[in-house]
Each structure stands twice: as C-alpha cells, then as structure tokens.
Amino acid sequence: MGICPLSVVPVRHTPSQRSEMSSQLLFGETVEVLEEKGKQWCKIRASCDNFIGWVESNQIKAITPSEFERFNAHFAYSLELMQPVMGADHFIPITMGARLPEFDGIRFRLGEVYYTFSGQAVVPGDFQPSADFILKLAKRYLNTPFLWGGRSPFGMDSPGLVQMVFQMAGFKVPREASAQIEIGDTIDFIENAQPGDLAFFENNQNRISHVGILMPDNKIIHSFGGVRIDKIDHYGIYDEARQMYSKRLRLIKRILPTIPRKNVPNEVSEVESSGVQAELF
C-alpha cells in the first residue's frame, strides 16, 4: 500500500520516463502496489478510480494496511488551486483536489508527520451535492491548460476535469471518458438536459473522445486547449472565435438527481440558501 506524498506525480503507461503519461496522482491519494520492477518503478492501482499505471517508486510513500483503510475512510479535499501545507520544518505545495488524510479542520497526518492546512477544504458526504456546487468547482479550473493525462490546475484533460469536479462532490467517477459515459442516466435530448449533466462527444472514428459539464444558457465548461466555456447545441460545441463546431455531440448523461422541469433554472444560483456550499464560496 502507498500514498502520494508529493504535489503531483505522473502515472505512466509503461515503466519508463519516456512513456506516455496516462494519468496523475495528487497529494494524499492512496494506491495499491501491484508489481515492482527493480527499485525504480512500481505498478499501482489508484484507490480513487482503480486506474492502473506505473509510477516511480521514490514518488510513493509506503503505508500500512490499517493506514490505507483509515486514510480512505477519513479525509478532506483541498479546494484551493494551490496552497502550501506546513510540516514541522518544511512546506509542501498541494493543489485543488488533493486529499488531506484524517483532516480535523486544521491538521492532517501523513505517516508520522502532521501538517497544518489553512485553506478551504470539503469532506465528501458532509453535504448534498448540487449543480450549483459542481459548476462552482468546475469554474475554479478555468484557464487551466490542457494536458493529456492531467488532473491538476497546472494541466488537465477533459475527463480529468469531470472526474475531479464530481469526485470532490462525493461521486466516484472513472478516469477516462469512454468509461464515464457508462455511468448515470441517459438524457435523450439536449432540451431536456439540466446544469451539471455530462455531454460526451465523438471523433471521426465514432469513438468517445471528449466530455464536458453542461451549464445554464446552452453553455458547457470543458478542457479544450484549456478549461473554457463555450456554446453548445444539439449538434455539438460551437467555437465562436473560430466560427465553427469543434466537437460533435454523441450523448448526454445525468449523475445528479433530476430537477423538476418547472424548477430548472435559467441560471445557476450564486449562493445556496444554506449548508456547506454557501460557506465554501
């Protein structure tokens, strides 16, 4: 068993620095070690999404099975784009979506070392997730550059954006768009969609190649060049700057509870009436 003790760690397709980065581990995420290749590489399964890949052995900190269980059962997500955590004699910069094991509101523990965290954090399950919360999380990533395999504010791909946003809201979402399309309920027409629904897009080979989160007013937030907001209709995503469609719509799926049609907002409210969402933003 292991835990990521660094800000962002690349997960590679094969055990080589030259291999494609297929995903990333963020600080505090736990893994199961499946195989070791010498002393330099280990094959891991990430506990957050069961994604399998190779990481350098010195970028993973070994933990006991009991710590693995505790850290996965009790943690908070950092909501700060970038925030240093303070140990006894050093700092570690962590990103939005990093996990804070056994966080008590002020401190958390990583092995035998305690760290202080002074930013905003959220504990999954402490609130009822809503489209408002989902979209506020997503908009924090605006202007994050596109990075294949990325899951952090320094670079992320389209399924990485969806996964991180819904993960912080308490949903377990697969890593890749081709797997994300298998969860949730199908929405037949875009006219029946609601904010927070996921829109999936296909390439010229009719394969799912892109995903984004629907917003009010026929808009979508997604990672394409960078995390951005574009217009969307029944055909796909329309790039106003280039005056052309950039993505072709394939399917819409719903993970959040359905809102009665008469209550579907034209705009997502800026403040929840009560609860954690209002306090966090």
TrEMBL record:
SUPFAM superfamilies given in the database record: Cysteine proteinases
Q: Which PROSITE patterns match?
A: NLPC_P60
Which Gene3D superfamilies does this entry report, sorted A to Z? endopeptidase domain like (from Nostoc punctiforme), SH3 Domains
InterPro entries per record: NLP_P60_dom (IPR000064), Papain-like_cys_pep_sf (IPR038765), Peptidase_C40 (IPR051202), SH3_16 (IPR041382)
- Name all NlpC/P60 domain ranges: 128-256
Which UniProt keyword terms apply here? Hydrolase, Protease, Thiol protease
Q: List the GO biological process terms.
A: proteolysis
Tell me the superkingdom of the source. Bacteria
Q: Write out the GO MF terms.
A: cysteine-type peptidase activity
Family membership: Belongs to the peptidase C40 family.
- Recorded protein name is NLP/P60 protein
